[in-house]
Amino acid sequence: MICNEYTDVDNKEQLTFCLWWIDENLEAHEDFIGFYQISNIEADTITSVIKDALTRLQHSFNECRGQCYDGNSNMLGKKSGAAKQISELQPKAFATHCHTHSLSLSVKDTVKDCQLLSLTMDTAKELVMLIKYSPMQVGNYSW
Fold this sequence. Notes:
With 143 residues, this protein is an alpha+beta fold. It contains five helices and five strands. β2 and β3 form a beta hairpin. α1 (43-56) packs across α3 (82-89). The relative contact order is 0.11. The model has no long low-confidence stretch (mean pLDDT 84).
């Protein structure tokens, strides 16, 4: 399972939840489960939402073999993070830092040290914002 917490544009806490799984032909699949509005980003809250989502999907922790989170202490904290709490329910659910998140942080660090890359990324961001909030797109989000 892959989870990430963030604050949305309305300043509300959200949790994204995805499941990766392998079928009988050993083909990998990734299913987006949903966005969950959460009252706070504490580990207990996140763990509760994960448990609730898996219960509603009729999935058991017995089949869970991995957890993937960003590096925040509420997610990967060794003493009381969500990963620790899930590991107590299923010791075979190995917790790891999200490689995509690590790559994103690496790119961010690299870009800030190169003015050309930094300006290019800023321009790309401005173009996305221009298109996203253009009058033709308001109320008609197709992406």
